[in-house]
Amino acid sequence: MKDYFAHETAVIAKNCSIGKETKIWHFSHIMSNCTIGNQCNIGQNVVVSPKVILGKNVKVQNNVSIYTGVICEDDVFLGPSMVFTNVINPRSAIKRNTEYQKTLVKKGASIGANATIICGNTIGEFAFIGAGSVVTKDILPYALVVGNPSKQIGWVSEYGHVLKFNENKTAICKESNQTYQLKNNTVKKLEDD
Fold first, then answer.
1. What is the distance between the alpha carbons of residues 176 and 99, in angstroms, rounded to a whole number?
2. Tell me, what CATH number does 149's domain have?
3. 100/109 Cα distance (integer angstroms)
4. Residue 91 domain-assigned (yes or no)
5. For labelling alongside 3, which of 35, 111, 146, 155 has CA 20 to 30 A away?
């Protein structure tokens, strides 16, 4: 007996690994040799390609294709119709399936609706990619980026709120009351004493 839910229209290869309490919705295709962690939600019309790795509690909204080479760590959010690529210079007549590049989405990162992630980049922990952005380079942890090509316009907390740093280079998340420090273009959450 399986420990996950799959809608009757979902197509799931036999040789993939799907974690407990994961839900796979209408018309989604889970391909061979992929790994999906516990408590994930795979929305409608999603493709998870071979060798993709999704960590625990990854939320994939409708119409997302996750191509070979993509790794999403725990607690990642992939917004509706966002796009990953896995070949830097695709051509129909030239086979490049040995050239797939790795794209790493680190723990807690969120990617907004209709964003495009060019392959070969890393999106840092808790980074926030605005809707419609085109990511062409690595994104720092806690960075807020928007636009085409994406540009960093600020920093966000682990709860996704914009951080406003004071003269001491500290900021407090308005929801969690956690304190963050900005030093040398790096944000770090300060631990409670």
1. 42
2. 2.160.10.10
3. 22
4. no
5. 111
